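Q: Two folds, back to back.
A: First:
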Amino acid sequence: MNEAVPDCLVEHYEALIEPLQLPDPGDRHVLAAAIKCQADVIVTNNLRDFPREVLDRFGIEAQSPDVFLGHLFDLNPTSFCSAVHQQRKRLRNPEYTAEELLDIFYHQGLPLTVSKLKEVVDLL
């Protein structure tokens, strides 16, 4: 990840952790890092542990991976499809058809994303 996105690490957020109140105290570091880097979104399947009323105070929203990917697709369908195509081409053992990859995505909890990609499956 560090090579692909050189500035992806958030540092010096530790002082923000203690005062944060979340249903699972073990998730406070995630919110603290999001606050520190002024993130708009926390992407998680653990939505219930990031309540809207807490995140709203910091201008942050929690989204499932499926909703987040759906937004990315809507922002730039061509780039999104290109990224999925590149991902599929890197899978060599075994290789996957576009339809097989979409089936994997679906079973990984991405039904919204799959429904959007099915409309452009020849680009994948």
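A: Second:
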Amino acid sequence: MRIGGQTLLRIAAAILAAGVVALAAIEATRAPQDGGRPGGSAAPSADPLTAEISRCAALGEAALQDDACRRAWTEHRRRFLGLDPASSENRP
């Protein structure tokens, strides 16, 4: 018995589709690793800067006038860019 090229492609597509469905089913039944919260871990961060940045984000536009938020953003920028503290002291 000889199988044509088109039949082989259909068989391969069916196997691929079955694999995708199986992987989707497995992923859907897995428990979330981060406690179910989107975009983060279940435990709050121990870093006070993270808490301050979150507070400033909740303030919205009012955070632009908040000195503590400005200091937090400056520190966050310094850490992100890998600058040493002495080089960012003269910046606003």
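Q: And?
A: The mean pLDDT is 81.
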